[in-house]
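Structure first, sequence second, as always.
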């Protein structure tokens, strides 16, 4: 994040209402860069997915007017919000698939969570909740790596731990999730 984001986070925390208004466009750009990076690393060319995810996350974060304490807090909130967006879309897809009275889902939303993956996303969400009960840090590692697309080193910086710790937690969390999802 550029240094001015840190300054704006501090000003917003100290009650400057204009700071948050100036922060939101900078945060939006950062979220787009993270989502684009995640798509690039996965070899996918799904611009609409990235755009839909970032736009929804941006709107939720801006609407909540959360006073971010620092860069780490921002990324933790962004990870939770992005996870929430993806899970909400999966729930809508699942409800429609079952003939429920879910709201209509747009084409952009379908590209965010393809209908054939909705159940998989919901299962992952439930498993992450169970994992958080066992290890909050492992759950955060998964959210930052999977939903935000951070690298090992970026995740370590956000969580204020070593890259070796993130690698270990990532490995253990993936193994645990694999077992939980196989049940």
């Amino acid at each position: 994040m550029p240094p001015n984001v840190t300054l704006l986070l501090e000003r917003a925390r100290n009650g400057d209402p204009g700071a948050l208004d100036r922060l939101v466009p900078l945060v939006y750009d950062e979220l787009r860069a993270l989502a684009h990076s995640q798509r690039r690393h996965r070899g996918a060319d799904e611009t609409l997915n990235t755009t839909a995810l970032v736009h929804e996350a941006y709107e939720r974060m801006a609407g909540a007017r959360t006073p971010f304490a620092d860069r780490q807090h921002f990324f933790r909130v962004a990870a939770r919000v992005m996870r929430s967006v993806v899970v909400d879309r999966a729930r809508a897809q699942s409800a429609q698939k079952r003939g429920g009275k879910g709201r209509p889902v747009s084409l952009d939303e379908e590209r965010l969570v393809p209908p054939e993956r909705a159940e998989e996303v919901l299962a992952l969400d439930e498993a992450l909740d169970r994992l958080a009960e066992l290890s909050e840090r492992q759950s955060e590692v998964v959210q930052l790596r999977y939903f935000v697309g951070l690298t090992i080193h970026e995740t370590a910086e956000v969580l204020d731990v070593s890259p070796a710790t993130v690698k270990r937690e990532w490995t253990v969390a993936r193994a645990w999730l694999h077992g939980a999802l196989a049940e």
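Margin note: Residues 3-182 form one domain.
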